[in-house]
Fold:
Amino acid sequence: MKDKKNYYFRDMPNKNFSVDIGLSKTWESGSNFKEHWHEHLQVFYFIDGEGFIECNKKSFNVVQGDVAIINSRELHYFESLSDNLKFYLLRIDLPFLFSDQVDLCQTKYLAPLSENFILFKNLIRNDDEIVNCIKTVLKEFFKKEIGYELAVKANLYSLVVLLLRNYIGESVTKKQLTFKINNFKRFYKVFEFIDNNYNNKICVTNLANIAHVSTYYFCRIFKQMTGKTITEYINEVRLKKSIELLKIGNMNITEIAIICGFNDVNYFSRLFKKKYGVSPTKFVC
Structure:
């Protein structure tokens, strides 16, 4: 799966210390991470601005003080809704928390987390205990005083405990996880096809044929996986592409609508305003 188009992989800066923490640049409205997934656990801590996250069939806005958790292998999309979005991002390889000697902590909690048998809720709001724990990790990581690696690791254990106690969103069996992964593999070519052909008319029957399933089964599983109908998903892809073209600024709204696969510019404008809160014309002003 690592060669797949929307799989994201980046080496840890220190291969002997599998935690990567950074402060983002200030994001302008419309800036985004394209839809992707990865094997590590991500923790976003937002310190300014407003953003939009789509993850695990759910969409939600994030604001200053919020924490967002992206579980391993979750397909997700992230976009700025303001011109001042700024955040810390913690990337954690969960096996980093394993011990050399397999123990109860590892078998009962850490291994199930690493294997996606336990999934955390994605949005955390108004939780001072979680935020203070993250701030301690940030302080230790950036000051790098003697023993900071131990302090970072110790506080990550504390963070996992808080998440386990308060933010478990779903627990799955091995059979359920295998089913999810197999479906993702089967439907990957569908996502890739939509991404490469969003500007053309896309037939549901053709998509079902790509996944080698019946149209009925395809529509049902697609909705389970994405939380959207085929039409809703394709329109979301087209709207995301339109943002990129609007930011370039060398085409008018009608041209952008057509290039992105919308035959009706009024329909495009209605969908755009519904999603982003402003018309395409005002977005580029």
